Amino acid sequence: MYITYCRNQNTVDLEDKTSYRLGLTGGDYRPTWLVRVSDWKRVPGEAAVDGYHTLSYCWEQSGEVVKRENDNNDYHLVDNSEHCVVEGYDADNDFIMRKSLSPIEECDLEESIDPEVEEKNNKYVTWCEPISETTTLKHVTYEELLQQLCKDFQVEYLWYDKVCIDQSDKKHKSDEIKQMHQIYCNARYTIVLIPELIVYDLEDFDQEVPKHGTNARKTFLSELETSFWMKRSWTLEEVMMSKHILVVGTDVNMFQHSLYTPDTPPTAKDRFSESLIDFGGQIKRNNGSVNQALTHAHFRTSTKPHDMIFALKNIFASLFDDIEMNYSTDVQETFNDFYRHIATKDLSILCFGANLSPNGTQRKQSTMGDYNLPSWTGVDGLHLGDHVYITTHSQLSYTMDNSMKMNIKTNHYWKIAITKYKYGPYYFSKEHTPESKHDYLVEQKQKIHFNRSHKKLTDLAQADKDTILAEWFTNMHIDTGHFMTHYHYRQHDENNPLTQLRPLSLTHDCEEEECIVLPILFQVLHPTFLPVDKYKSIRGPKRAIYLLPVFCKCPNDSKSEVQYKAVGVYLLGNYPVDNILLPFNIRFNKLSPTFNWNHCVGRDDIDPVQDPKDILNILFENDYHDVPKKFIIE
C-alpha cells in the first residue's frame, strides 16, 4: 500500500511541545548503522554524536506486497514511487481520502463503483484530491517520503530497519533483532508513522471536549485505536521500548512521553503515557511485569507467526539469556517454549479476567486461537494492564512440564461457591436483556461516581445486596479495567455480613463447577495521575489492589488425574492511601472499610497495610490442609 504525507501538519497536542521534543537527548547506546537524513546515506552509529531517532511503521504500508514464488511462500516489497508528499495542503478545500476496508458493502449494489476510486482504494492507505490551486503533489519512494518527514521534524539520524539491517545476512539480521530493545529505548524519540490519522474538519481543533481537550484529539486517539499499526506485533515492541513518541499521520501529529519517567513535564494522559511508552525502562527498574505486555500482544498479529513471539522475547530481553530468532523452528514449539519459560519467571501471566462486556460481546478479538495454548497463558481472557507484584505462600511451589501443564502444590487453598452476576455477561433472562443490563449499569456507575466525587458514600453496612454488588462492579472496573462476571458470598449471618462478598472476573461460567482460589497474591500497583490544569496531569502516588487467581475443575473425561483451568481473578480489595493529594473518590476506603482486603475474611481488627506475605497468611490461616494438594493446570 502507498501513503500520503502533508508537510503542513496540524498537531492535536494541547500545548507546544516543540522545545521539549528538540531538547531530548536519548541514551548512550548507538546502533551499528544509522541513516544520515541529509543525504540518506548509511553511516556508522557513532556518527550520531547528539543522538538518533527510531522509526515504527507498518511494512505493508511502505509499498506493494508481492508473494515470492518459492518454497517458503514469503513476501517481498515493491516500491513504484507512488507514495505522495503534499505541498501547500489546504484543509478547508482539499480532500484527503482514506482506504475503505469494505468499499462494496458501503455502496448501493445497483450503483457502479468508480473504477478510479476502486483502484486507489486497492492501492493506497490515503491519497489527496487537491482542489486548491496552491496544492501540489509529488510522487516519491517511501524512503524519499521518510527523508522529507525527518527534515520537517529536524531529525538528523534515523534508525530504519530496511536500511540499517542487512536483510541478506542472516547472522547480522539476527544480531540486530536481538538489540532492538536497546535501539528503541536509547533513541531520542520514536517516530510512529500511521497514515490512517487524518483531520477532516479544522473546527475540531476549537471544539472543546471533556477529558481529551479538543474534538480533534479525541478523534485522533479513536482512529489510532483502529489503525493497522495498533494490530502489529513488532510495533508493540517498538512503542513499549520507547520513552517518547511522535505520532505522525497524513496531515496531523501528536507528541507523547512517558509519565513514568522522572522529571517529565505535565501532559494530557492517554493510553500511551499510562501503559505503553517506556515499558522497557520499567522492566529495567523492576517496575514492569509480563501481564502488561500480554494485555496487548494477544490481540496483535504479524506476517510471520514466529514474529509474534520474537517481538515478545525482545520486550522481555532481560528474562532471556539468549534470544534465538530461528524461523525454521516449528511454530507451535516456538510458542510453547516462550510461554513455558515466561511462566517460570513471572506468575503475573495468571493475572487476567474476562474479555467480555456485560452484554456478552468480546471486547477485543484475540489473534492466538490457532496455537493451542493452555488456559494459564490467559489467551481466553484479557490481562490486566498495570504492573503486578507477585507473592506466593511460603508453602506453595510450582513447576512447568513439557506437556505445557502448570503443576502447583500447596497446603493452603479456598474451595468456593460462586454466583453469576445478573447484570454480567453469563446471566440471561427476559428481564435482563443486553440493553437493560447496559442501561442499569450505566445508571449505577454514574450515580456512584457522582456520589463519591461529592463525598457522599453509600452506607454499605445498611445497603441491600444489589447496591453492594453495584459498588463492587464499579470498583472492579476502576481497579482492573475488567467487568465483574460472578461473585463469591460467604453465607450471610452475624459473623459473615453481606459486605464480605467479593467480585470475580472469569473467562468461563463456572457457577456449576468446583472453583479453587490459590495463595498467589497479585499486588497491582495502579497509577494515579494528579491534574495540574484542566487536561494535563503528572504522575501521582500509586495505590495497591489485591487479587487472587481462580481455577475451575475440568470435567474428568477418564483422565487419571483431576485437572483445572485458570479462569480469572478474585478481587479482594485494596488498602487506603494516606495521601491528601489523591482525589477523594480513590481514598474512600478510610470511611468504608468494606473495600479493604481484610474485610472479606472478617479481619477488620487488623491494620490493612501489611506485608504481602502476611496478607497471604491472614487470608489462608483457616484454610490449611494436612496433606498438600497438587493442582494440575491445563
UniProtKB/TrEMBL annotation:
The residue ranges of the Heterokaryon incompatibility domain are 139-238
Q: What is this protein called?
A: Heterokaryon incompatibility domain-containing protein
Taxon lineage: Eukaryota, Fungi, Fungi incertae sedis, Mucoromycota, Mucoromycotina
